[in-house]
Amino acid sequence: MAQGALRGPSDYSREPPRHPSLRINAKRNHGPIPVLDDIDSYYVTIGGLAGGPRRLSLDDIRKLPKYNVTATLQCAGNRRTEMSKSRKVRGVGWDVCTLGNATWGGAKLSDVLQLVGVPYHTEITLSGGKHVEFISVDQCPEEKGGPYKASIPLGQATNPAADVLLAYEMNGEVLKRDHGYPLCAIVPGVIGACSVKWLDRIDIIEEESQGFFMQKDYKMFPPSVDWDNIVWSTRKPQMDYPVQSAICSLEDISAVKPGQAIVAGYALSGGGRGIERVDISSDGGKSWFEAHRNQKQGVPYVAGNVTSYKWAWVLFKAIVDAKGDTEIVAKAVDSSANVQPESVQSVWNLRGILNTCWHRVRLLATPDLRSFM
What we know:
The chain is mainly beta and 373 residues long. Helix content is 7%, strand content 30%.
């Protein structure tokens, strides 16, 4: 899975305030990072039910029209630690920072697939292909030493507006090894596990990828399912992520001087849906007011507007009065009127993915901060 570094181009250089006790997770992978130094012999094989196979070198892909797409990649396990406090889950204990935003440069997958005879907006090929599988060169323990793999629907892959990229640049520079050099599949608006690094093959297949991570990992089950009664085949692999927000300027149980406190962070939603508003409460959710939102400095953010990045996070900021101990709450609403659920119990699942409940931080107002240092 690829994750983008928390920075962007000159007109989008602002970052959300850093979580006080955490480092931002700027990259993620499930196996050792491979070394691919011999670019002259590097190629990606396009095959499966598309015919072929056909080998494309990095130069072949660079000859296609280049697109820059600003997108946030978010791990499905973002905020898993909070979910585990309700009921223990399995997985790495991420807090609110398992995501990153970058501007990716590369060729659109829809253009690449045209080279092997798959037109734009194809839902199914004549030979029955309905999904596109990305296969890496890395080796994962969960795949018994085999490569990491994931797939997306063919209709999404062949839709130019979906902005699925074969990226060779990140933030205007050659892709770094940790981020998938020399070529990484970037799938905006979808959980980060579908953005596959170090591409080796791209196959058109009939069903979803049968790899471990799509079949026995990134699926969301109801709270009633546990490890004794789970049946993996009853759920589809997770694709789009739900609407999400998190406060990054304050840590839970923060000690602050009485007065005004800055509440700032990020909000985003999957599928290219914009953020219609971010609501802030300074009394635990009894009353609300709207936070200011922005992406580019000096350019008003409007969800769905051509001046806004539809795949990128939206930064929010508000000022609250911290006169005494209080609970600050943030919740986002996307352009389809989807809103974050109130409680973590309603979205709890044994794998700890997609924790999108209201984000809460408690403030302890004290005139003397030395006792907390």
